[in-house]
Amino acid sequence: MVERIGAVSQDEPAAGAAERDERPPFMQRLLDNPFLLLFIGVTVPTVLYLIWGILEIAQIPLSPS
């Protein structure tokens, strides 16, 4: 029996087509998008510091008048 190198069986094209039709997982799509990562990297700290600042200002006691 002679085995050819690089020979493709009848099952492989169908399996390859099915693999190409699958969407990548959510985390892979998220990490592959640099602009989304930039947006998240700027927005999350900004929102957290804003909330932290509001909480700090709310904790300042009122002066007696």
Overview of this structure, please?
The protein is mainly α. The protein has a domain at 33-60. It has helices at 11-21, 26-31, 34-58.
Spell out the key features of this protein:
65 residues; mainly alpha; rod-shaped
Topology:
Elements: H1 11-21, H2 26-31, H3 34-58
Largest sheet: none
N/C terminus separation: 101 Å
Please state roughly what percent of the residues sit in beta strands, choosing from under 5%, 5-15%, 15-25%, 25-35%, 35-45% or over 45%: under 5%
Structural class: mainly alpha
DSSP strand tally: 0
Element string (H = helix, E = strand): HHH
Q: Please compute the radius of gyration using only Cα atoms.
A: 28 Å
Per DSSP, the total helix count is 3
Give the proportion of residues in helices: 55-70%
Q: Based on Cα principal axes, name the global outline.
A: rod-shaped
Low-confidence stretches: none
Mean pLDDT: 83
TL;DR of this structure?
The chain is mainly α and 65 residues long.
